[in-house]
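Notebook entry, structure prediction.
Reason for the run: the old model in the group folder had no record of what sequence produced it. Starting over properly, with the input documented here first.
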Amino acid sequence: VLTSNGAGAAPTFQAASGGASEVVETIVAASQSSMAFEGSQLASTDYGRHEFHVQKISGSATVRLAIVLKIAGAYITAAGSYKNQILTAVSTTVAGALNSETDIEPHGRGHDFLAAETINGVCSITLPTTSQIQSVMAELATQDADGTNPIIFKSSCACTTSGVVTGVKFGFVGWSSTFDVGQITHVAYKVA
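New structure, fully documented this time:
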């Protein structure tokens, strides 16, 4: 935060107070199969919440967004590592309860996105530095290339491995399709 030091004195930067946000990193799609965020802010107790802003992401084929967490130095990908609860705003019914998954799938099964569709929204993690079961909350929306047929998804996904999160990686289910359009931005929020 830029702070005034009085008349005639040059302003200086001071540490942001509690609740302030900081843009940590933005990764722009460039035909990569994943986007990994491993900034030191994830493991810092100075930050209580992390948001990942998904902006107009689209893939090279029919895809479903996937997320994995890095705990104890490795990305967790074993079968049964994640439990997903998905609610769609279209029907307000649970779209999927995926309990033996190798990744977080914040929009469930049966909701694949065509290459021309885009995904927008926010995924967040609260208190990733505590040694507890980690949860990811997501609010995502998709729409066709012409801006029609939007579908909104809300989900709560838990990793069955407890520990401090030191990385968050986004990809598409199967981890072979590529991000061709859009970007993801990591925003960290200071503890009050």
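Summary: Confidence is low (pLDDT under 50) at residues 91-95.
The old model has been moved to the deprecated folder.
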